[in-house]
Amino acid sequence: MSQPKKRILVELRAALDGHSGIPQAARLLFRNLARMPDFEVQGLIQHGGHVLAAGLPDPIDGSFVGANVAESVHQLGKVIIAIEERPWLVNVQGFMHSLLMVIRQLIGGTQKLGYFDASRFPDFVWRRLFAKSLPADDLALVVSQKYRVQRMPWHALHITGLVTRWLGGAFYGRVDTRGIDVLIAETPYPGRLSRGTTLVIRYHDSIPLLMPHTIKERRYHQAAHFHALKRNVADGAWFMCVSETTRQDLIGLFPEVASRAVTVPNTVSHHYYNEDSRIEWVGDVIRTRMSRRMQRIRSNAIASILSGGVDSQQVEYLLCVSTVEPRKNHLALLAAWERLRSDGFPHLKLVLVGELGWYHQRITRAFEPWMARGELLHLENVPAGELRLLYKHAKATVCPSVGEGFGYSGVEAMMSGGVVVASDIPVHREIYGEAAIYANPYDVENLAGAIKSVMRPEGESRRAERVELGAVQSQRYEVANIAPQYHDFLARLPTRLADHG
To answer: Does residue 497 lie within any of the structural domains?
Structure first.
């Protein structure tokens, strides 16, 4: 008699957000698990701040057909609208609904999960949740999976715990996960599960606890991360950490999870590979992807860019791909770049790709004089194919961050045939190995020197060696190498006797 498939519910809240980081990790994880015949994978649809309409009740035969098709489609359409819009009436209803749900949880109620029929809304499911990271060939795969709806916003669940901690301990409501063997959450999960479900946290980093001065909404995020994580640990959750560095940080905080924490690195999107391309195309990317902020600085910046050599074969630029926020260490990179421009590389440009994040004002003020001259180029919404081009032709992709859980941009650059200069922090040493050139992130001279070492004519052999090493190192994070690690961990995971009633 064959073993029943293990039922795995994957949190997809993060997939509603940006291109890279945790959003990309969530999409790739779901796709990878959906390909495995041993598992029945479902996606958990939830919003960070919006109360969602209820999904459908449990379908008897797994489909939504019959006399109530129109009513079912109407109800599911309201789930989508609640994700996409938040009119004032929804705000009022959402507040009242959240308040009632909190009260219900406090008196022992359980949050029900509704069902969502993706086959009725393939365009929404594909474009809103998956298209930013997956190839179009995966559309049929992801639309054919089952989905659940959690109405209460993720932030409201965290706030429930933070408010009730004054009553003697953070209280998190129970979610009805009967019939689910494993729930995989992308961050510490602000909830408790049914008796038969094992919680797995895809743990990305401990930065909210170890570097709270670098995070947004510091007081809230530090407390939310800590109290939810503490509850997960006490409830026997398992942790699938994205790097051994992250795993050691977690164990340093909660030694009792050592036997329940494993390291399974992230996979990287299929979009990144070393292709033949022309450096002349870099100018087209810069012109079309320039950020709105950059365009507002001064209109003649565009003219400066077009006359400054970005269309020629002699273009020289450094690349940094990350959200603009303090932990990413842009100010040190800016100072190192300025040093290089005055020390033999007067035409070197700095290309920054990424959205403006939290506490960016001091950083962007330092950018503005160079933006106005068209020497520092800030780009937004760069598609992966164009980013692949930028990685390949950059003099170096610089990853100067002072803290990371993994480090996507360096791996993407290596896959694209680029050379990487990275801050000398433990996680970069672990993920990039000997393929990167390392520098002290707090020493501008050292960082400038590391970059210069692959830009000088006598550094060409060193550069070529690093590109070759990067091609080998980055293969470790291809789907073919990481997916079996997901499978082995989840297949061996000791789950409780699931209540499928």
So the answer is: no
